[in-house]
Amino acid sequence: MPRCRTPLSIAGLFFAVIFTFAFAAPLRAAEKMNVIIILVDDWGWTDAGYAGSKLYETPHMDRLAARGTRFTNAYAACTVCSPTRAAMLTGKYPARTHITDWIHGHNKPNAKLKPPQWTELLPREETTIAEAVKPLGYATVHIGKWHLGDKNEGYPDAHGFDRNLGGYERGQPPSYHAPYRIPTLEEGKPGEYLTDREASEACKFIDANREKPFLLYLPHYCVHTPLQAKKEKVEKYQAKIAKMKEDGTLGKQQHAVYAAMIESLDEALGAIMAKLQETKLAERTVIFLTGDNGGLTLNKATDNSPARAGKGSAYEGGVRVPLVVYWPGVTKPGSVCDEPVITQDIFATAIEITGTTDPRGSAGVDGLSLTPVLKDSSAKLNRDAIYWHYPHYHPGGATPYAAIRARDWKLIEWYEDDRVELYNLIDDIGESKDSAKANPDKAASLTKQLHAWQKSVGAQMPVPNPNHDPSGETAKPDKGKGKNKGKVN
Questions:
Q1: Checking DSSP bridges between strand 214-219 and strand 139-143, what pairing results, if any?
Q2: CA angle, corner 475, sides to 470 and 479, nearest 5?
Q3: Are strands 335-337 and 69-71 parallel, antiparallel or unpaired?
Q4: Residue from 435, 390, 374 nearest 409 by CA
Q5: Which of 14, 121, 212, 306 could be a cystine partner for 153, CB 3.0 to 4.6 Å?
Q6: Is the pLDDT assigned to residue 195 strictly greater than 50?
Q7: Mind spelling out the 3-state secondary structure of 130-150?
Q8: Are 102 and 336 in contact (CB under 8 A)?
Q9: Interacting residues of 248 by C-beta distance below 8 A, sequence separation 6+
């Protein structure tokens, strides 16, 4: 026989409802995963101990790789920085956003081709990952390099970040030692090292937001030029290099200052990992660690062997980057994934991890969530190719090109003469044997697939240059707007 509901039971129900609304939401918020994205500037894909380097000392990176998943075929969205940064923040191919070169690029007035009228800032209309997670109650911070527009066009705090520490229009710091002369970062004590400062600010942010979910985006200025490091670390690597030369164990990586910068970068990661342990947040914080383009080889800062070339090149050394993901409870310790992945996949993965339902957060996103391969490193993603489109010139070696990687194969199309090169990366990671003539059907099918993709994303194409003069084809820095003029980026 059913019981009658008494006034007391109604009151109990009332308070239960109040409890649910008052306390359940904060509890759910506390259970949300924190996300840390660390983007290293000009970091070569073998520039870590876990990646095989005998020179660079990276115990914290090695520990992160031992705890999470290391990707062997990870790629930057572009061979230079600004397009990759935009892809990281929006999840879209540079060809789709038309942010296709570092801002403000190079001017080669006598070249055979003229670049299109590309977009030289991150438009306010684009939805960044920070804007996507804000409705879920996430605290957000940007610490480090921006290089996606000036103050009028919008610094990070105009794109969903609660705070911006260090991000402005320049692509490199005036100095790695305080005074930094970075207008968006309070000066440190004389001699303070910028990478240490970025790590310190990251730890302060974690401390301040331990009771709520957060997105920490840390695009380090390191290891971009100017190559500057702590004196004691430089001396340490000078001695190490000398000993390795004597022992016959020194490889092609032999720049003491660069090695010292890598060690400081590793220590910054170590400080953040220690802070997560201290605040008991380590088990609900996902860490992405990756680079924005290939390692710089123009001044022999590093060497990307066995990959060919480096930053500013269409070849593997220009676009292949490190990627380590640690997702507590999901990634298998020490797992290695060979699946080809690309920058914008990090956006898509973070969107899934945070559970954002903001429709703008996934609209037009080109990246795929890496969740399947993070759960099982032998799994395959549901796509057959990744792409690049660079209608510009760069002193690193690139002339206007597009490229496609379809599983084992990579095809590069050069716009100046419509020539294609074809490589089987499994057999020839150094891209030393162009097999386009030996495999005409494969070259034709990949070229067709590449063109179809370009059309689907609205890729802008270079056009014939009416001022073409073969005798004057030298790359010159842009003389136009912005504080990057006169810089090679």
A1: parallel
A2: 120
A3: parallel
A4: 435
A5: 121
A6: yes
A7: HHHHHHHCCEEEEECCCCCCC
A8: no
A9: none
In the chain, how many H helices and how many E strands? 13, 18
Rounded-to-integer distance, Cα 489 and Cα 485, Å: 10
pLDDT digits (tens, 9 = 90+) for 213-262: 999 999 999 999 999 999 999 999 999 999 999 999 999 999 999 999 99
**Biggest CA-to-CA distance, the chain:** 100
The DSSP 8-state label assigned to residue 342 in this structure reads E
Torsion on CA atoms 75, 67, 260, 236, rounded to nearest 10: -140
**Helix 344-354 and helix 81-90: axis angle, to 10°?**
20
Helix axes 256-278, 59-67, angle to 10 degrees: 50
> pTM higher than 0.85, yes or no?
yes
Please write the tens of the pLDDT for every residue from 97-132.
Answer: 999 999 999 889 999 999 999 999 999 999 999 999
Q: Return d(Cα 192, Cα 244) in angstroms, integer.
A: 30
CA distances from 202 to 36, 215, 217, 483 (A): 10, 11, 9, 27
Which token pair is 266? 């590793």
